[in-house]
Amino acid sequence: MIFVQVDESLEAAEGLAEKYQAVLERAAQQTLQQTGADADAETTLVLSDDARLQALNRQFLGIDAPTDVLSFVGGDTDPDSDQLYLGDVIVSLPRAQAQAAAGGYPIQDELQLLVVHGVLHLLGYDHADEGEKAKMWAIQAEILNSLGCQARA
To answer: Which tens digits make up the pLDDT trace of 112-147?
Structure first.
C-alpha cells in the first residue's frame, strides 16, 4: 500500500494530497512492478517544503542545502498489516514546481520522476558511482517512459 501525506508547512496544503495522490501512487506502483519488487510492500510518500528537506539533508547526510527528494529505507515488517515497509520518500513540492517550470513540462511529470527516483533508492538502487548510476538511470528511464512522463533526470 502506498500512503500519501502532505506536510502542514506547505502553503495551501489542504487538497494537495488529493490533487496528486493518484499520480504519486501510480509512479510508486509502476516502480515496484517494473523492478519485480513486492507489489504489496508499503511506503509513504510525503510532499514537503525546501526547509524540511534541507533540515533532513543536513541531519542525515551532512549536506546543508535543500534537495528535491530524499529516501529513508525501512525494511521492517509492519506489525499491523504484516507487509514489508520499504520506507519513506520525501519530496520538496516547491523544488518540484521550479524544476518542472524550468524543464517546460507539467508538475505531475516532475513528481513522478522524483517518486520513481526515491522508490528506486528504497529498493537499493544508487548512483554513487558511474556503473550504479547507469543501471539506476536506465531502469528509471524505462519506468518514466511507461508512465508517459516527459521529465528526465
So the answer is: 999 999 999 999 999 888 988 899 999 999 999 999
Cell numbers of 8, please?
502542514
Q: Does domain 2-147 have CATH number 3.40.390.30?
A: yes
Within 8 A by CB and 6+ apart from 41, the residues are 32, 83, 84, 85, 86
Vertex 29: Cα angle to 95 and 100 (nearest 5)? 20
pLDDT at 58: 95
User: Whose grid coordinates read 508499503?
Assistant: 42
**Whole-prediction pTM value?**
0.92
Written as nine digits, the cell of 26 is: 501510480
Half-sphere exposure of 83 (CA within 13 A, CB side): 13
Q: Which residues, including other chains, have CB under 8 Å from residue 89's CB and lie 6 or more apart?
A: 28, 43, 44, 45, 46, 69, 70, 71, 72, 114, 115, 118, 119, 121, 122
Crossing angle for the helix pair 130-147 and 16-35, to the nearest 10 degrees: 120
CA 11 to CA 8: how far, in whole Å?
A: 8
pLDDT reported for residue 16: 67
